[in-house]
Write a structure and sequence with these properties.
The chain has helices at residues 29-32, 62-75, 89-100, 118-127, 159-175, 188-191, 196-207, 224-238, 254-263, 285-296, 307-318, 340-348, 379-388, 395-414, 423-433; strands at residues 15-16, 20-21, 43-46, 79-81, 106-112, 132-136, 147-148, 151-152, 180-183, 212-217, 243-247, 268-271, 335-336, 369-372, 421-422. By secondary structure, it is α/β, with parallel strands linked by helices. Bound molecules: zinc ion.
């Protein structure tokens, strides 16, 4: 476990010259003491091909899927969720092509063991090449124990449900000893009045040799404190058996909840590139990686400088446009206008830009860019620019530059162009306006 075993005044884990400068508060014993189960290393299960494709407006060709897996595995992602190959013919055919492309990764599939044909589903999935078998379809939430789109299902916290889960673990272990077996009832965060039913179920799963257990927030209704608590209660019961968390974003908390689950002891997290997923999406891969690496000091094994390129590839091929101001990989994440004055002056003087930002964009594969807009036009900045251009610096000239800049931005806006000037456009405008 990662423990605070250094003097924070001497060693500054929140500051790495020319990489990042974050908050010392995250490293205080009073904070770190709350995460005694924080693992040193976290692994990723990518769900972009399955839950990502469930995002309305998103579809990937098989060629795109192969490339997405290739890029993510090159970056360090180990397992890939390929859905329900036993019951979904399209997913089974995609899996065949993915495997034929020579990718050497863990293929993670889901088995709905709540239905009668569960054994056959395991056989078909393993036969199709899945070596990570997730036993689910026995729900923990209020809607389970009846009929779903997959047919009749059992409730996880009933004798029948528990027996089915343990039978499925036994079956996998006996018939497919090389497969990794994971258990995770769906929708548990809505179905638990206290952690014990899930903790007790997982304790028995461990006795039956399960390789991993899950915390699944299917409807994104958890919040960080409760999911950290639930994860830590499970961790105390299952010991060395790894926990994976799977969080949805219905309240915009999927990343925060995934990170909190890691604080509680989860060492595998399931994410999608760009946070793609049904409804409001899933936990964003790039945001989880950057948060764990930079803010928590947890090793993810992910090459962070690939994050931007992967995010753009998934956006382009999947077809769903991401919000420009999305953290880490958004187009605006490093396109600054209100801070432009400060950054330009810092950059021109050769100062360390970390004074004015949390981390270097290159760390996540992005680049700095500044633009000039209404919020950039301070007296100080315009005078700085005029001086730099060897133009006379006086109040009248500042007024002219403000007026001309706003006029030009209005012109661009009318033409549907971005409501800002590039640095070069702004300098040209200064020179022309004061000729
Ligand atoms: Zn899900």
């Amino acid at each position: 476990m990662a423990v605070l075993n250094f003097n924070i005044k001497e060693k500054k884990p929140w500051y790495k010259p020319s990489e990042y400068y974050t908050s010392p508060l995250s490293w205080l014993p009073g904070v770190r003491d709350q995460w005694p189960l924080l693992p040193e290393r976290v692994h990723f299960i990518d769900s972009t091909l399955r839950e990502g494709e469930e995002a309305t407006g998103t579809a990937f060709s098989i060629e795109d899927k192969i490339e997405i897996v290739r890029k993510l595995s090159d970056a360090g992602v180990e397992w890939f969720d390929v859905g329900y190959p036993a019951v979904n013919r399209a997913q089974r055919e995609d899996l065949e092509q993915l495997r034929n492309s020579g990718l050497k990764v863990g293929w993670y599939c889901l088995i709905q063991v709540g239905v009668d044909e569960w054994m056959k589903a395991i056989d078909v999935s393993v036969g199709a090449g899945c070596n990570r078998i997730k036993i689910t379809g026995v729900g923990g939430g209020p809607r389970w124990g009846g009929y779903t789109r997959h047919g009749r299902v059992l409730h996880a916290f009933t004798l029948d449900g528990e027996k089915r889960i343990l039978d499925a673990v036994d079956y996998c272990k006996k018939e497919y000893p090389d497969a990794t077996v994971i258990v995770g009832p769906t929708d548990v965060t809505r179905g638990l009045l206290k952690p014990e039913p899930l903790v007790n179920l997982y304790r028995r799963c461990v006795e039956h040799g399960v390789d991993m257990v899950s915390v699944i927030d299917t409807f994104g209704v958890s919040e960080p404190t409760s999911i950290r608590y639930l994860t830590s209660e499970i961790k105390k019961a299952v010991g060395d058996t790894p926990i994976n968390c799977h969080c949805h974003n219905d309240f915009g908390l999927a990343v925060a909840n995934s990170v909190a689950s890691v604080e509680g002891g989860a060492s595998w997290i399931q994410t999608t590139v760009n946070g793609l997923g049904d409804r409001a999406g899933n936990a964003s891969f790039e945001e989880c990686v950057a948060t764990l690496e930079i803010l928590h000091g947890v090793d993810t094994g992910i090459k962070m400088n690939r994050l931007y390129e992967i995010a753009k590839f998934v956006e382009k091929t999947g077809g769903l446009k991401c919000q420009p101001h999305k953290a880490i990989t958004g187009e605006n994440a490093w396109l600054e206008e209100s801070h432009a004055s400060f950054l330009i002056q810092m950059r021109d003087s050769g100062a360390d830009l970390l004074r004015g930002e949390a981390y270097k964009p290159e760390l996540v594969g992005q680049k700095h860019n500044v633009v000039i807009s209404k919020t950039t036009l301070t007296q100080n900045f315009i005078k700085y620019a005029l001086n730099k251009l060897n133009l006379s610096v006086n109040d009248e000239n500042v007024k002219i530059i403000i007026k001309e800049t706003l006029k030009k931005i209005d012109n661009k806006t009318e033409k549907g162009l971005p409501r800002y000037l590039t640095e070069e456009e702004f300098y040209e405008l200064c020179k022309k306006s004061l000729k």
